[in-house]
Design brief:
This protein is α+β, with helices and mostly antiparallel strands. About 20% of the residues lie in helices and about 25% in strands. The protein has 11 helices and 26 strands. The strands form 8 sheets. Strands 7, 8, 9, 10, 11, 12, 13 and 21 form an 8-stranded antiparallel sheet that branches. Strands 24-23-25-26 form a 4-stranded antiparallel sheet, with no helix packed on it. A 3-stranded antiparallel sheet has the order 3-4-5, with no helix packed on it. A hairpin with a 2-residue loop joins strand 8 and strand 9.
Length: about 500
């Protein structure tokens, strides 16, 4: 128990005191833009190009700009100077940056012997390298990562070495690190698929690694399973950001934890979209573990449910959808998109469906937070920007400064709609049927414009309840994430009556 507690403290320290810059969803989607619309072999090829683009690895070993210089940033607890050791419970400490802590080795997750020993980028890539105590490194040898069926070496919570389930001899990481190493293996298998693998390496990799799938079927199946079982945590995110700052590339299997399903898993027939995919970016709250509950329900995170409110006081700090009802069709506002050097814009919309007073979304892009202000609320979008309105125009101007933000006065009407009035201009947020967007209009100019409804986010610590797959009504449609939708109109894999089907 003490070792587990110490690791938890390490994670917290690294996240609060690390120097790596976090990445947000917009930046991540921009970085991954070349993946959009790709699937299966085409997606794997695009990943290979992207994760190699601009990559600059450190020199191998100690000293300035060497591996241990990098480990000082990527694998050090800044509070205690302790080395983050994933291979055993032994404790080591860093000295000066670039120095090798006594008793430690550089461990290759993908051993160099797998490709013939060449000291190439794969040999020096920090996503493939970790600090390890010398003894554990020796035990692990150059074995593939696999389930160990008969252990000859086993340190509880850390490495296990012995006969592999799918391989002759194997090493198996501790449960707390299975997902992290799995995502590292997937990164290596794609980023260095140009290498010619041999001997022990061919137990994991295909002889034609640059082809598709590139890795053995047992390996992609097991590693995807481990990735779901041991989800990305803050320690892994911090390391990904730190390595990215050094190498100028990212492990996208950490950034998009379900990306592996689009390459090798249950979503290979679905085109990947980095703009909407669930990520571990700093401003993406959709990703998290889920816990089954008793009975005929499953609790699923990654969905966002909003309930319609009427003649109720808004709650400061909560998130809402701003929704127009026009001709029985519902449209939820989304953040202002700035392009062409513009500093202002309108709230364009996404079509949504109300089911018994609730709207369920797979993304929280449409959510607006109402933050407490004197005389009303500040309006903040999902990108962390506040809004103000210039009285000379009907558009919105986003700002990161509260000092520039408008205070919005909220008034509920008996028909369930709301007035959101800018304190400076007195203009009100309304949906324009002519322009198909929300703008700011004078209350005397509302002919043809529509006041919005508001839907408040339902916060459930355990997630969103939905019928279990086996008990889903036969006439209802669900996404793979368990979100109930109307009849699918977009290509993808869906569930109906407990069975998967493909819309092409």
């Amino acid at each position: 128990m003490k070792r587990h507690y110490a690791l938890l403290l390490t994670i917290l320290f690294l996240c609060t005191a690390g120097t790596a810059e976090a990445i947000n969803r917009q930046q991540l989607a921009s970085y991954a833009a070349s993946l959009k619309g790709k699937k299966k072999a085409e997606l794997k090829s695009a990943l290979y190009q992207l994760m190699n683009e601009g990559k600059k690895v450190l020199s191998y070993g100690s000293g300035s700009a060497g591996t241990w210089w990098g480990f000082y940033v990527t694998d050090r607890d800044p509070k205690t100077n302790q080395v983050i050791n994933r291979y055993s419970s032994k404790v080591f400490y860093f000295g000066r940056r670039g120095e090798v802590p006594s008793g430690m080795n550089i461990e290759h997750s993908f051993p160099k012997s797998w490709w013939g020993g060449g000291k190439n980028d794969a040999y020096k890539d920090l996503y493939n390298l970790y600090p390890s105590d010398a003894s554990a490194n020796s035990q692990k040898s150059n074995y593939p990562m696999d389930e160990v069926s008969a252990a000859k070496y086993d340190e509880e919570g850390y490495d296990k070495v012995g006969k592999g389930t799918h391989t002759s001899q194997a090493w198996e990481p501790g449960d707390r690190f299975k997902g992290e190493f799995a995502r590292g293996y997937m990164y290596m298998g794609v980023t260095y698929s140009n290498l010619s693998f041999e001997k022990t390496g061919l137990q994991t990799m295909e002889s034609n690694a640059s082809g598709y799938p590139g890795m053995k079927a047992w390996a992609t199946t097991l590693y995807r399973s481990w990735s779901k079982q041991d989800k990305v945590d803050s320690l892994e995110v911090a390391r990904n950001n730190a390595v990215s700052d050094i190498q100028n590339n990212r492990n996208l299997f950490i950034d998009y934890p379900y990306l592996c399903e689009y390459v090798w898993g249950d979503s290979v027939d679905v085109a990947f979209d980095p703009d909407n995919a669930i990520s571990t970016a700093s401003d993406d709250s959709r990703y998290g573990s889920f816990t089954p509950t008793p009975g005929d329900t499953t609790v699923v995170k990654g969905s966002f449910v909003f309930a319609r409110i009427s003649q109720e006081q808004l709650t400061a700090g909560k998130r809402y959808l701003i929704v127009a009802n026009t001709g029985g069709n519902l449209y939820a506002a989304k953040p202002v998109t700035l392009s062409g050097g513009k500093t202002f814009g309108y709230l364009y919309t996404d079509g949504v469906i109300d089911e018994k007073g609730n709207i369920t979304l797979e993304s929280d892009n449409n959510a607006f937070t109402f933050e407490e202000a004197q005389g009303g609320f500040y309006l903040k979008d999902s990108k962390g920007r506040y809004y103000y309105q210039d009285g000379n125009y009907s558009s919105f101007t986003p700002t990161m400064s509260l000092a520039d933000a408008d205070v919005w006065e909220v008034t509920a009407y008996s028909d369930g709609t709301y007035s959101l009035k800018a304190s400076d201009s007195g203009n009100v947020i309304m949906y324009s049927s002519q322009h198909k967007s929300f703008g700011n209009y004078g209350i005397n100019k509302q002919d043809g414009n529509i006041l919005p409804y508001l839907y408040e986010e339902l916060k459930q610590e355990t997630g969103v309840r939905m019928p279990a797959v086996n008990n889903m009504p036969c006439n209802e449609f669900y996404t793979l994430q368990g979100v109930r939708i109307g009849k699918p109109t977009q290509p993808g894999i869906y569930i109906r009556g407990g069975k998967k089907f493909v819309v092409r």
